[in-house]
């Protein structure tokens, strides 16, 4: 109850820190918030050329049977790429949140996890803007996904919870072991290709690949981001209700990861000012 009271009393601080993150994100940039759209669009163009043109990936948008192949691939890609960018940016920003605010942590007492929360919330705002633009593009080509809007927003909320949990875990570990920030860069690259963003998960089911006694597809499905991305693909691109097993796994994973991240954070927090 004391912790909840602290969080309630720190709402204004969380809002101010989130606003600071939002203002500083593209400070002194000529294009400003346009970069939040340019970056994923540039990645989508690159992957579309490599996988849509060179490897000739065949995909069809559910709402428009005339939109297929190279034309549909960027939409499919962005349905998974935008949530992934949120995860990647949220984690990268969280890692340095404590070290970067060392002076504030040493001088004033407040729940330190608010620094991670403010960083993640600022990227969540970017995600909402990007998803709104993608939603308009999908409607323009005939993918009438609006009936899934409440569930899409719920999925974003739990994805934010997931990123916050991972962010708290890595941010506190980075204070004690500065190698974490270097390791995470490599790990995120591997995690990206282990998530069905640039390829459909069905591509793996047609192969009998295994790692020892475990089928490779099983390992991919243990990845929580696989289920999050699949849920977005199903609702926005394929216009179907998500597989409830996948949806439930994504929700449970986000709660477990958040709880574990908060537990480790609270365990290591007492010596935080010393280590900084």
The unreliable regions are 63-70
Give the integer mean of the pLDDT values.
80
Helix % is over 70%
Which class of secondary structure composition applies to the elements?
Answer: mainly alpha
Described by strand count, sense and barrel closure, the largest sheet is: 2 strands, antiparallel
Overall structural domain count:
1
Counting DSSP E segments of at least 2 residues, the number of strands comes to: 2
Describe the protein's topology:
Layout: H1 2-9, H2 11-25, H3 35-54, H4 73-95, H5 97-100, H6 102-107, H7 113-140, H8 149-176, H9 180-193, H10 202-205, E1 210-211, E2 214-215, H11 216-222, H12 224-237, H13 244-268, H14 272-275
Antiparallel strand pairs: 1-2
Helix pairs in contact: 2-7, 3-4, 4-7, 4-8, 4-9, 4-12, 7-8, 8-13, 12-13
How would you describe this protein?
- With 276 residues, this protein is mainly alpha-helical.
- The protein has one domain (74-275).
- Helices cover 72% and strands 1% of the residues.
- It contains 14 helices and two strands.
- It has a two-stranded antiparallel sheet with strand order 1-2.
- The longest helix is centred in the middle third of the chain and has 28 residues, at 113-140.
